[in-house]
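Lab notes, practical 5.
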Amino acid sequence: MITVFVKENNPLTPDFYNNLINSLQFHRLTCTCGHSACLSIHGYYTRSLKTPEGKAAFRICRLICSRCRRTHALLPSSMVPYSQISLAEHIEIISCQESRKGQDTLMNYNPYIDESNCRYIIRCFLMHWKQRLLSAQISLFNRTTLIHDCFSAFSRQFMQIRCTPNILSMNTT
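Output from the prediction step:
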């Protein structure tokens, strides 16, 4: 998996994702095996994301490395791997839990996120991420440093539960 860093103020929409992919210079991306200039488009798959407007379908680009033959999904840093809920909403749910506030405001803003989604995210945070953040002294409150620090310390996106190899790439446009 390759996560492309995007600024917080960019909207997470299929059009934004498509423009991001179209603007990337694939020869400047690095594979998780460490080689550069070896990635090419291998295919696409569909992934849904729960947004306030409904479920948005993203056509996720997959790359293949000509050296190690591994395939990688290209995700923006505003997405959490294997989740239908954005990184910003993960952080909001966890922040509400940590400050002992309810998730009602978030669920009213995004009616496609329900109590079950919130409980799952909180459970995953408590089981997999809370101690990691505390031990590495990583704060939830600055999303940019949270992303960079999680990749630096753990080689994965914040709230990525599966141990799939993941690498953070700065936008190579």
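Observations recorded by the TA: The chain has a mean pLDDT of 91. Residues 2-84+162-169 form one domain.
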